[in-house]
Amino acid sequence: MNAPATLTNAPDCDLTSLDRVRATDPIYWELHEFLEDEATLLDEERLNEWLDLLSDDLRYWMPVRVGVNRAMGDGFSRRMCFYNDTKSVLAMRVRRLVGTRSGWVEDPPSRVSRFVTGIRVFRTQKSNEYAAESNLLLTRSRTDLGEVKLLTARRRDVLRRMDKGPQIARREIYLNQTTIDMHNLAIFL
Amino acid sequence: MMPLSKGATFPSSAGRPLVDVERCEVLARVLTDPDIYELERQKLWRKCWLMVGHDSEIPNNGDYMSRYMGDDTVIVTRDGKGQIRVLLNSCSHRGMAVCRSEMGHAAAFVCPYHGWTYGLDGQFRGLPVAHQKMQGELLTKAELGLKRARVATHCGMIFATFDEKAPSLIEWLGDAAWYLTLMYGRSEGGLEVLGPPQRWVIEGNWKLGAEQFVGGDSYHVYTLHRSIFELGLLGSTADITLDSAPAAMGLDISFPQGHSFRCAPTDFSPIFGKDRAATMTAREKLLALPPPGMTPKLVEQMFERFDDDQLRVLADMPPTVGGIFPNVGTHNFLWAHPDGGILGAAYGLHSFVPRGPNKVEWWNWQLVEKDSPEELKERISETCSMAVGPTGMLEADDGECWPFMQRGAQGAVAAEGISATIKYHVRIGEKRPPNWPGGGLLSEGFTKDDGQWAFWLRYKDFIEGDTW
Lengths: 189, 468
Description:
The complex is a heterodimer of chains A (189) and B (468).
Chain A: E1 7-8, H1 26-43, H2 47-51, E2 54-65, E3 76-86, H3 87-98, E4 111-123, E5 129-141, E6 149-162, E7 165-175, E8 179-180
Parallel strand pairs in A: 2-7
Antiparallel strand pairs in A: 1-3, 2-3, 4-5, 5-6, 6-7
Chain B: E1 19-20, E2 25-27, H1 34-45, E3 50-54, E4 63-69, E5 72-78, E6 84-88, E7 103-105, E8 108-110, E9 117-119, E10 124-126, E11 150-154, E12 157-161, H2 169-173, H3 176-184, E13 191-193, E14 198-202, H4 206-214, H5 221-224, H6 226-230, E15 249-254, E16 260-263, H7 269-272, H8 274-279, H9 282-288, H10 296-305, H11 308-316, E17 319-324, E18 328-335, E19 344-354, E20 360-369, H12 374-387, H13 395-408, E21 421-423, E22 441-446, H14 450-463
Antiparallel strand pairs in B: 1-2, 2-21, 3-12, 4-5, 4-7, 5-6, 8-9, 9-10, 11-12, 13-20, 14-20, 15-16, 15-22, 16-17, 17-18, 18-19, 19-20
C-alpha cells in the first residue's frame, strides 16, 4: 500500500547508489570535524558563529512524523513541518534569542548536548557538494529540573566545500519522535 | 473521589468555591488537583462535543486516524459509504486497541490479540474459530460492535460526543458558528490540512492552554510575545509601546457556551493612504488584501458565498484568534516571510488533550485553501512553522510559561490567601460596536478578561453537573 497523499517517505535516504567517501580520504575527516565543530558551536550557544556556517541558499527542514503501519512507509509528512526555514528565518530565530530584550524562551538557556555519530559521507553530482548522513542524540536540561529530555534523529545534510571551509547547504532532520516530549523547541538540531 | 454538587466547595479551600462568580476568581488548585481531574473525566470530557480532526485528513472511504477524546482513545474513520465515524478504540472482548497506527487506510480493524474484527463503521464482523462460539452467548453481534460516538462537522472540523443527551453541534456552537464560518468556511473548495498535526507535551494542566485560546487572551501578547514586536513582525516596530501595539484595540466576543474570539481591526491606511482607505468598500479591501490564506481569485468566490455583513467584518475587524469550549484553539492571521514574496499566514486549529492533571498534549493542525496555488501552500508551510507550534516564535513562548504556572500552583502556601486564586477582575461587559452583525457578548476596546471568564463560567456548569 502506498503512503497516504499527505505523507512521503524520507527522500533518497538510501544513499547506497552514491559513491561513499571512505574514512581513508582526507575529505571525510574534514567534513567529520566540521559536523563536530558545528555541534559544539550550538552546544555553546555561539549562534551567530553557527549562522556563518550556513549557505545563503540553505533549506533547514524537519518534517512532522506519524507512527504508521510498516506498509505505509516511514510516516514523514510532505508539508507539515517543525522547521521549513531559509537562512534568513534562522537568522531571525537567532536574533530573537540573543538580539532582543524578550528572548526569554531560552533565557535561562537550556543546557544542550548534541551527540553526532555514525557520520557517512557520499559524493554527489556536484563536485564540491557532499551528502552527509549522521545520527543525532540531543539531550536538554532546563532550569532546576533534574530530568534530561531527549530527541533523536537521523540527519541528512548537503555540505558544500568552499575556500573558507565547508558550509551547510541543506539539512533534513528525520526525527524518531512523533510527539515531541518537550514544552517547545527554540533550539537547533 | 469526592462528588461535587452545585455550589459545593473543597474543605481544604476554606469554604471558597472553585469558581467564585462574585469575585471572578478561580482556585488555582483547579489546575493541580487529581480529584478535579477525575471530575473532568466524568462530567466534562464524557459529555462535550470534542474536535477530533479535520475531514481532509481522511479524504477517501476506508481512511482512518487515531485520536483522543479526553483520556479515551478513538478511531476516526470514513466508512465504506463515505460517512465519518468515531469509534472507541477498544476491542469489546478484552479492551485491546484494535488500531495502533496513527493513520492509514483499511477495510476492517482486526484486533491483534484474538482476532476479533470490526468494520470501519464499528460493526462486529466476526472472529477466528467462529464455530467454537468464542464470543459466547451473553451478547448479540450487534452489541459487540465498537462503541460509536455521535459525529457532526462544521467547516470541515470533525466533532464527536459520547453523550446521547448533548444538544446538536449547531446548538453547542451557538452564535460562535457564524464566526467559525468566517474563519474556516470562506471558499467553495474548502480547506485541507498541510499534513498530520504537530504534537508536543507541556508539563501543565490542559486548562492553561484552553483558557488562553478558548478565552481569547490577547493581553499576554504584549509581554510574553514582546520579542515578536522587537523583531518587527506582525506589522510592528522595535520601539512599540503597549498603546501602539497592533490590535491593542479590537473586539472580544464571548458566548454562553464558553467559546470566544478576538477580532482585530485591519488598518488599510498604511497601504492605501488615509483618504483612500476611508472610502474603500469591503469588496475592494478584500481584493486588495485577501484574508490570510486566500488569493484574489478565491476572494471573488467568497463574494458569492458571503453577504455584505460578513464581508464587512472580514475586511475591517476579522476574528484572528479564539477557541471553542472546552479545548479547541483557532487562529488565522497574516505572517510575512523575511525573504519577501507572497504573504504567508498562521492558519489552523489547536487542541489541548489532557494527560493527567499536570500534563497536556498540544496538537496543531495547519490549514490551507484546497484551491490555492502550490506556491501559497508552500509559503504557509514556512510561515506556520515560524509562528505557531513548538518551534513557532509565538507559541514557543506559551510553552515556556505554563509549566511554571503549574509548578507555582502546587505549593501549600500558594494555596492560601491571595495566591490561592487566578483572577479575572477586569471585564468590559457588553459594549457593541455600531452595526455589528454577529452574535455573542460584544466587548469592544482594549482586550480584557471577558472571554476567559466565559470559559470558566461554562467550565463551572460542567463540573457542577449543570450541563444541559
